[in-house]
Structures are given as C-alpha cells and as structure tokens.
C-alpha cells in the first residue's frame, strides 16, 4: 500500500448512490450535492425513485438511486454514467452497474452480499463480480454494516436505528474520495436533525468513521480527487430542487404583486413537495389548503382568485385531467390562476416516479371548447423559480390562467442556485379596475391596448359583478347564448393570449451557419446543450433553440426554424412539440428524436442520432410521411 495517496484535480465527476428505498440514498446524495454547492461547485442531480411504495427489502424493484454531477463550472446534466457507484446491496449492484463507466470506482457493503441477498438479486453464484464482468481492483469492498454497528456500539440506539446510519458511512467514504470538508456535512446533519440531537451526533460519528476508513486504508484507490471552482460568481448560493424553486418563485411573485398567495392542492407524485414547502411559510402570508380531491383543489383556487389572491393549484398529469373543468371555469371567467403540472410517466397511473414531457398537448388542448391558455416550460431546477415568477406575472397582468410545465426530472433534481435580489425582478402590476369605472363597471370591459378585462375584487363599492361558467355578453356581463357574441368572445379570449409579449427564441451555438438546428422545450435543455457542445467539438456546425414559452410562441419562431436546412425536434414524448410547430408554421418539416423511457436523455445517444442526420443526405432518410423523419 502506498504511503501517501495522490490528490488529482478534476474538471467534473459523477457519483451515484444506490440501495434499498429505505437505505437513505436520497439523503446521502442530497448532503453530498449540498456540500459541493456550498464550496462553489456547479451541480446537477437526478433522484431515481422506485415506483413501488415499499418493495421487499433486497429486491430488484426496490432499488433507489441518486446521481449527482459536480464540476468546477456550470453543470448542465446529471451525467450519462457515473465515475463512482455506491451499491449498498446486491440488488443495487445488479440494477445500477449499467449506469457506471467501465473504469468507475465501485463501493459496496460486503455485509449485504450474503447468499440470501444474492438470490434476491438473481445472482447465480457467489462470484457476483465475475458474473457481471467487474474488475475486483475497481471495487472498494467494505463491511459497512459491521463497521457501523461497531462505531455505534456505545450508543443507546435500537438496532434498526443503527442500520439507518449505514448511508452515512458510505457518504463519509465518498467525502474522503473527493476531499470534502466534514464540517459542512456535520452542519447539515445538525440542522436536519435539530429536534433529535442524538440522531445527528450518531450520524456525524458514522460519517467520520467512513471518512477515516478511507484515509486509513486508502480504500484500494490510487488517488483521491479535488474539484476546485475556478470561476466563482459572487453571491449567496444554495442547493435547490425544482419543486422548492417553484414554491419560492410563487412567494416572490406574491410579494412583488402585494398579494396573498393561495395554493389549493391535492397530494400527487411528483408535485407534492410544492404543497409541503409552501405550507412552511405561513409567516409570509401563504395560505395552503390540502383538498379532498383534484377538482375541489382547483375550484378552491378559482375562488381564491375571484377573491383577489395570487391563486395556484399544483398537480401532475392525472390531476390535470381531473382539474380540466375547473380550469375551464377560470378560462371563461378570465381569472388569474397558475396551474403547475409536474409531468410524470403515463398514461393513467403510468410511472408515478419517472419523468416525461407527455402533457404538452393536454395542457394546450385538453379542455372542451376554445380554451386558450399560456404555457411556460421550465428548463432546469433553478429556472423553476423564474418560470413560476413569470407564470404569476402573466396571469395577474393578463387575467388568464397560466400553465407552468415542469417534470419529475427537474422537480426532484437540484442545482446550485444563486439567490436573486427580489428588487431586481420584473415588477408585477395586476390589471385592476380603474377609479373611472366606479358604478359603470361590467366584468368584460377591456383594456383597448391588450384586450385584458379589468379585475374587480369583491367588496369594492361600485364594482358589483357576477362571473360564472355560462357565456356572458361582452358588453353587459349578462348570460348570453347569442351566436355573434359567443364568436366575438372566443376570438377575444384567443387573441388576448396570442398577443402576450414573450421573449424572442434564442439560438445558441453556430446560429449563423449551422448544418443542424436542435430544437427542444423545457427540461431537456441541459442534455441538448451538452449534445450540441459535443458535436461542435467533433467539428460539426450545430445550433440549439430551446422553447421556454410554448404558448404563445415567440414572435420570431417561424423566422428561426425556417432558416436552417435541417432541424431536429427532440422531446421526451412521441412528437408533441413537433406536431404543434408543424401546425403553427407553414412548410416546417423537422426530423424528430423521441423517447419515452421515464429517464432523462443520454447525451451520447443524442450525439449519435444527431450526427446521423448531419452526415446522411436527406433523401436517404425520408419518405412522403412524417413518420419517416422520426429517428429510430
């Protein structure tokens, strides 16, 4: 064994923690990512939960993973494959090794590789490394369970509580491997277990034991690693998930608009954390209601909007189906409402803990009648803050419900977030009634500049009015079934949304002379940007246009998309954005890259598919139907 382990400096590294769903892998990964963000590293995380509520211990279906990519600069994806894999049991090794690089370091708990464990994981012999073709020299085989028991032998803790600390031993090993400061880990644990100081101290003790195990044995690795942040932007940073960022964005919007924030919600994976986070902030005037079902949750938010609050309802795809009638009430009443859809795998119950982009056409068209609504798609965990803020701004200033699309990948994933100065955020001016309208007000009087109706809050003298689900006369506000009036109101509601000003579509990369333009929307930004970067390194001219505002589309959309000879629309569905763009833009016929695996894109696969489009003559790839333009 070497006397001293060499310390190598890396640009970036990917670590994946995996084990049973009760092994605390999400916590270990979260602590490691938070510590990394604290020292200024760029991070991107991907929690990969099992769909089972509680699968049998040691089973293949019960493995929970948490992947974190840390780098010296900005990090765009959680990484295709990991450099370090922590596998807390045999099932974790069996299912997660596919996500490891060929040269990856693998840390295992040898105490969880007994005959019963191997049988549950479908191994056929005791030589589990040989069965999987893993080089033993790359494996840090540590009796983690036994060492944790010895470490906490003097503590008066029940056996089950002791075993729950195993994740901290693995975390300590990883912290040693990457020269992380254990003081930061200890501070995190003390804060998390502030009401249970004994639990905090036990976990800190085990983290230190794991760290010192690596330091004292050199843990079978030739070197440890350091990732220094070379380009630091001054400011306060935190590791934030997309759901938490969404909650903070809504709070900031309510503060800026001078309104109370109301959330009517019903628990649903993976959106529930927005409800949990907002419920913590009553001191900021936030009101949260957990309703009995999705319909009542949305209906209560419509009522709160009528009463003058910044009203929000949060859900996932199945909940959007159920809320549609109440959302449509907000459309015809032209009330401000933010509808958050944290997309997950479908159809039906589908894949509750997995991620897709399959609700786009549902939120655009999944309601009866002509029912136009703005749609914004957040591009990263940190962008969820800005997207939520802008969704609220549009809703309040244009008196319309607005859909904010996120998904399980960015909602549960996290990034290093620089706390913004709220005073520098764009102002929000709700479109209230004017003093001149007093005693002359009817609910569908409109601002001639943008066709937005005026918002009167109940209780204001001189602004008495009625709203409801039946069509109203545009002049008097009385119920009307007059054909010409209905035609007029449908056109007004449509045009009001179509005229909302949104930022132009930006093009990155070789925007002037690209051989291929990559197009995506929402959460795929990091993967598509990384694919563009890799292709440019190969010498190809490639550009990227990522949609954040999907309805209305940016005014320059047609100009941008028709500029390039070859365009590929890449999305995690079977072609919904591509279909929308084909409808909206004459003569736009893109290639399509579609996957619905419930997992993020793999950058190397994107590069391979896009390279094929660049180097192959178009006539060899396409036929008379759009299906021939879908990459297989």
TrEMBL record:
Record domain Pyruvate:ferredoxin oxidoreductase core: where: 514-579
GO biological process: response to oxidative stress
Keyword set includes Oxidoreductase: yes
Span of domain Pyruvate/ketoisovalerate oxidoreductase catalytic: 22-211
Keyword annotations: Oxidoreductase
Domain Pyruvate flavodoxin/ferredoxin oxidoreductase pyrimidine binding: 264-450
Cross-referenced PANTHER family: 2-OXOGLUTARATE OXIDOREDUCTASE SUBUNIT KORA, PYRUVATE-FLAVODOXIN OXIDOREDUCTASE-RELATED
Protein name from the UniProt record: 2-oxoacid:acceptor oxidoreductase subunit alpha
Higher taxonomy: Bacteria, Pseudomonadati, Bacteroidota, Bacteroidia, Bacteroidales
